[in-house]
Amino acid sequence: MARDHGVIGSAAPAAARQSERLPWLLVAAPLAVLLLFFALPNALLLSASVLKSEAQQLTNELTLENYSFLFTRPLYIWAFLRTFIVGISVGVIDVVLGYPLAYFLVRTRSRWKGLLIALALAPLLASVVVRTYGWYIILNRFGVANDLLLGLGLINERVAFMPSTGAIIVGLAHALLPYTVLTIMGSLQGINPNLELAAMSLGASRARTFFDVVLPLSFPGIAGGFILAFSIAISAYATPAILGGPATQVMATAIYGFMTQLLDWSIGAALAVILVVCAVALAYAAARLGARQGAL
Amino acid sequence: MKPWSALRAVVIAIYVFMLGPIVITAAVSFNQSNRSQFPPRGFSLQWWHRAFSAEWLDPLVFSLKLALLAALISTLLALPLAFALARHRFPGRAALTALTLGPLMLPALVTGVGLLQLFQYAGAREYIGFTALLVGHVVICLPFAVRTIAISLHTLPPNIELAAASLGASRAAALWHVVLPLIKTGIVAGAVFAFVHSFTDVNLSLFLVRPGEQPITVKILGFLEYGFAPTLAAVSVITLLVPLALVASVERVSGLGDFIYAARERG
After folding, report:
1. pLDDT digits (tens, 9 = 90+) for A106-121
2. Considering only residues 174 to 213 of chain B, which have any Cβ-Cβ distance to chain A shorter than 8 Å?
3. What is the pLDDT of residue A295?
4. What mean pLDDT value characterizes chain A?
5. What is the CATH number of the domain that holds A87?
6. The complex's ipTM?
7. What DSSP designation does B259 have?
8. Neighboring chain A residues of B22 at a CB cutoff of 8 Å
9. CB A125 to CB B103 under 8 A?
10. Are B107 and A276 in contact (CB under 8 A)?
11. What range defines the domain where residue A151 resides?
12. B136 and B28, same structural domain?
């Protein structure tokens, strides 16, 4: 099985060690693209975030004002807080929902197993915009949820479920669940089923076997699934834009505001840099927890 | 076995949660009223009819073109890069690996903002639109293609080229006749993942559009700000069916299942 256990990161096979120099011929074109259109724009963002700008033109003046602006305005402090509340909630919900599903999909002997796995992953083929639109239909004032609750007599008048932070959390948890399921499945598949049989043959109950053997062994999958959902959630734009509003800004919508409406690109760049720092820190944490099984 | 049936009930509930909104969206598109009601009142195809007007077909075709080109270019770039990373050892290999996976690790939104600033400050503002979008999509699709191809390269016995050489094949011939056919599935899978990733992207595209040059996802997002109609439900279903049809047909021919784990980070 050649899953991605260190697929790229692992040592090259000994027999293929023809070259001790950088194989320029192979890497020149992709390297140029990555340097020019990935490394350079990010470097540019970093420098733009510490430079003063006037009318979308950078000056040479160094400043930390862009950062201090963000960290002193309640609006943006709230946007940071809300972003992390959303990220943590989405991560927790996705692990809680994703674990039983992943466990079921790995262990089931149903002949529909293939179809069930496909169904669990198929939502990834729809853009987040499309999937969030489904929640718009459900949660808006005249939507399915209101119709249902009114019909059942549980509410007397229509309730505004959105725009709200809760709606953003539900929408993102829904959008990112397949990633968590995949990550947890990956780690569950790595557990030898004989370990469970061994535990039970020594007298452990099913529940005890699960909580003392399976659950601890699948911890890297849980941590990985949580961090993956968390890190995608904090940089998501579409769901907060659709299910939230001006009163429920998150970092991504604030960046969009600075770039397209307020036209203050330096502050937009500073926000983007903060987002990058979060992403790198999360990836590092995931690596330390053994979560990204060699994918890096 | 009681715990198992309890688990089964939980799993059914999770499937309802996952697929419910998609099913509801599809149902709503057949509404007779102009509200997105569920269950739909009556049955009509008027919203589907509207979904196939130029207003929605243009961005759809734009997205298709963009995703096809981005998949093609990123796969062509990924092939030699994956080969170098998987089969060669050289100084700077770790750094190159990090750079390759970078667009996967950093939020696409940030790459979009960076590219917008790059084009602006480089005085290349007129390329914002299709060209800038294509560049951005190639960058964010590249890691998917590289990783998928690298996986299939690792499944090959390392001395397969030596075997070919010992039978008299030149290095080029060994690559062309032996290695490439063996990793064909990986290449196709990489291209499919790249296509889907590009076709469903919104975070990067957001910053690089211009009037008349925007992918369908950004168009839908913009439309949502003014309100919504069942047309959008029909459009949504169409944009879901395109990648679904592609994946289903490729799966029939060559099987993507082995590579699905490569797609697990940052769809």
Report:
1. 988 888 888 898 889 8
2. 196, 199-203, 206-207
3. 36
4. 85
5. 1.10.3720.10
6. 0.87
7. G
8. 123, 126, 131, 134
9. no
10. yes
11. 78-190+220-288
12. no
